[in-house]
Specification:
It is a single chain. The chain is an alpha+beta fold. It has 13 helices and 18 strands. It has 2 domains: 287 residues, 3-Layer(aba) Sandwich (Aminopeptidase); 121 residues, Alpha-Beta Plaits, CATH 3.30.70. Helices cover 34% and strands 21% of the residues. The chain has a 6-stranded mixed β-sheet, sandwiched between helices. It has a 4-stranded antiparallel β-sheet with strand order 11-13-9-14. A hairpin with a 6-residue loop joins strand 1 and strand 2.
């Protein structure tokens, strides 16, 4: 595969233009106003897989958005790699914080990306990283050096919980049979120090509603005499952490995996500058659970965060009301051994129990998933490490991620396969935020590195 660098260099302008075209499609799965765009994007992914060399591609209907399945089987006796990715994206809100329209991709140079980065919703999460695999397949098929079988499963509901994917996997276990699952939906330490994600946190996502009076009330006539749902909700949320930022839900930590001192020392070897971290976020100090470092807080410890809160009058000017209802959306990132359904139930019971008289509380679970840890001694990890070593000239560091990809645990349960997380994004990519972007270096380097994984995985199998 010595000519992979040459191939990428020769076709890089086309690769970038194809990704830009895909990024123009507002495939926001969380908002029904974009439902046709999501469906159109699935068709675009199908066409891309066909052009890249898949012998069979189909847009598979599900109870929700379709899943694009493709395959190229060169020899049933050879190993099979199953590539997973998603074509749906997060909502772009708040739009006014974007420097350029979220679905009108632009390339801009930055301090981290002097060669340029593509700014658009979905650039890094996950269209750019998913499309690296499509172009890697194109290279291998065009040059007759695909060393094993490959299958693609690209879904359109990852950002809303992958409910249809679970249904699809259980319905099509034979079709999806594989020897290893390959995903690029994570990141690496830097463009000079690659890393391989070996652990993911689980997730429990809920919405809460606090109701007081049966209608909005005049804050002068009723203020101080009637429970204010917004005040109550704020107090209830504040009580979910103690003075050490420890979560106060009874039983929350019962099954938390506590890493040994030796493991924590190994984690601390990863390059990290606290000053650079604070500067990048424009904050004076970090914040979190007492007794843990920043990198430990966002990877091996569970968390609870409010993702949105609303109620009452939020328009321009003043309106003196006591709202009838207040709402919040809350996510809990979980570590291995914490069952997301159990944690959701613990949260529901606790939150309902702390509501004062005069207020009614509803807790609506949205979605969730289990955490995941992959061992570094299996051939999938070793093949990925060797691929990064060849491509970057540096040995990758195993690293646990704070993010969640709930379907990874599902894959292991249903398909009995290990998942290798070959991410090429950076923490600075602003995924889920305004001005999301993906470095051109990262995009092209992914296309260059992925075929090496196929080579080494086949040789080691």
């Amino acid at each position: 595969m010595n000519n992979i660098k040459t191939y990428v260099e020769q076709h890089k302008d086309r690769f970038i233009e194809e990704l830009i075209t895909l990024l123009k499609m507002p495939s926001v799965s969380a908002d029904s106003a974009f439902s046709q765009d999501v469906i159109n994007t699935s068709e675009a992914v199908k066409i891309a897989l066909e052009k890249a060399g898949c012998d069979q591609v189909e847009v598979c209907e599900t109870p929700g958005y379709p899943i694009v399945y493709g395959e190229k089987i060169i020899d049933p006796n050879l190993p099979t790699v199953l590539v997973y990715g998603h074509y749906d994206v997060q909502p772009a809100d708040p739009i006014d914080l974007w420097d350029s329209p979220p679905f009108e991709p632009v390339i801009k140079k930055t301090d981290i990306h002097p060669e340029g980065a593509i700014f658009a919703r979905g650039a890094s999460d996950d269209k750019g990283q998913m499309y690296m695999h499509v172009k890697a397949l194109e290279y291998m098929t065009k040059n007759n050096n695909l060393p094993c079988n490959v299958k693609f499963m690209i879904e359109g509901e990852e950002e809303v919980g992958s409910e249809s994917l679970s249904w699809f996997v259980k319905q099509h276990q034979d079709k999806l049979a594989n020897d290893v699952i390959l995903i690029s939906d994570t990141g690496m330490i830097s463009n000079t120090q690659p890393s391989i994600t070996t652990g993911l946190r689980g997730l429990s996502y809920v919405e809460v509603e606090v109701t007081g009076p049966n209608r909005d009330l005049h804050s002068g006539l009723y203020g101080g005499a009637v429970a204010n749902p917004i005040n109550i909700l704020n107090k209830m949320i504040a009580s979910l952490h103690d003075e050490n930022n420890h979560i106060t839900i009874p039983g929350f930590y019962d099954n938390v995996e506590n890493l040994s001192a030796e493991e924590r020392v190994e984690m601390a070897k990863a390059p990290f500058s606290l000053d650079a971290y604070k500067k990048a976020l424009d904050i004076e100090a970090v914040y979190g659970e007492k007794g843990y470092t920043t990198n430990e807080r966002n990877s091996i410890r569970p968390t609870l965060d409010v993702n949105g809160i609303w109620g009452g009058y939020t328009g321009e000017g003043a309106k003196t009301v006591i709202a009838s209802k207040a709402h919040a959306k809350i996510s809990m990132r979980l570590v291995p051994n914490q069952d997301w359904e159990e944690i959701t139930e613990l949260f529901k019971n606790h939150f309902e129990s702390i509501a004062p008289k005069g207020a009614k509380v509803k807790v609506k679970p949205h979605h969730g998933g289990q955490g995941y840890v992959t061992p570094i001694d299996n051939i999938g990890y070793r093949a990925a490490a060797k691929a990064y070593q060849d491509s970057f000239g540096v040995t990758p560091i195993p690293q646990r991620s704070g993010g969640s990809i709930p379907i990874v645990a599902l894959f292991e349960k249903e398909l009995k396969s290990k998942t290798i997380l070959m991410g090429f994004g950076l923490d600075s990519d602003a995924i889920h935020s305004p001005n999301e972007h993906f470095g051109i270096f990262n995009y092209l380097k992914g296309i260059e590195t992925i075929p090496l994984f196929y080579k080494y995985f086949t040789e080691m199998s």
